[in-house]
Amino acid sequence: MKKILFTAIFGLFSLLSYSQTTVSYHQSNLPFVGINTQLGERWLPELRIGTDNFVENLSLEVVGNYMVKSDEDKQIYLGLGGRLNLFEGVVVPLGINYYPFDKKDFGFHMEAAPIITFNNGALFRASFGIRYRFLKD
Length: 137
What we know:
The protein is mostly beta strands. It has one domain (2-134): Porin, CATH 2.40.160.20. The protein is 10% helix and 55% strand. The protein is built from 1 helix and 9 strands. The longest helix has 14 residues, at 2-15. The radius of gyration is 14 Å and the shape is globular. The relative contact order is 0.18.
């Protein structure tokens, strides 16, 4: 599992130089920061790292999001991914990114994500936060 995660992280960072990159902060009871890159018209793979934790409880998530609907102001996505360390398991995010300003680089987002853990059952995480896109000219 760790080899798969390492390969996914390396692959994500190698793609950052070729596509639009976004950073985000998600506020919830399990807050995290994320970095993603858009691949083509529909795919948003994202690496997420838990925040507000002791280092030994630092959690990593790798999620592949598919944009169900996308226009200049908003993106609605559905995804599937994995989570390691605290609450290890499968993550199924459903969310919306909204960019209300004239320059479409800063925006807001909301997400609901069931986490199906391998040993603790399931929990439901809902988050909101901010997102910044590094737009290419």
